[in-house]
Structure formats: structure tokens, C-alpha cells
Amino acid sequence: MERACNIDARGKLVRFIGGLCSFFIGTILTILIVLEQIDINIFLLPVVLCLGLGILAIWEAKSGWCIVRGMGFKTPI
Q: Considering 16, 29, 60, 71, which has the largest number of Cβ atoms within 10 A of its Cβ?
């Protein structure tokens, strides 16, 4: 799969802001787990997903390449 730029400036901005929000939520959940305010057994998967998908979205914004668009799907932004 070729990694040519397939999103415009608006798409990069949306992915970057969404990635930052997701990463921020994952960080807050991690802090709450460390402080034993929430149960790790319930919140481990959401933490991993928030952090992982946040990093992925930030990387997509930086590189200008969307994985979903690269697979042939049309995204609205």
C-alpha cells in the first residue's frame, strides 16, 4: 500500500484535534487508575484504545495519510 498524502489540511486538523482529545482522555483514565479511583479491570481496554487510537490519529495528521482512505473507503473529511 503506497503512503501518498490522501487528506487535506482540514482532514489533518480534524484528525490532530481528535487524536489529542483521545490521548488526553486516555491519560486522565490512566491517572485515575494509578490513583485507584477507578477499577483497572473495567477501564484497561478503554485506556489502551484511547491512547493507541489517539497516537494513530496524531500520526495520520502528521503524515497526511489516512489508513481508512488508503483502503479505498471514502471519509467525509
A: 60
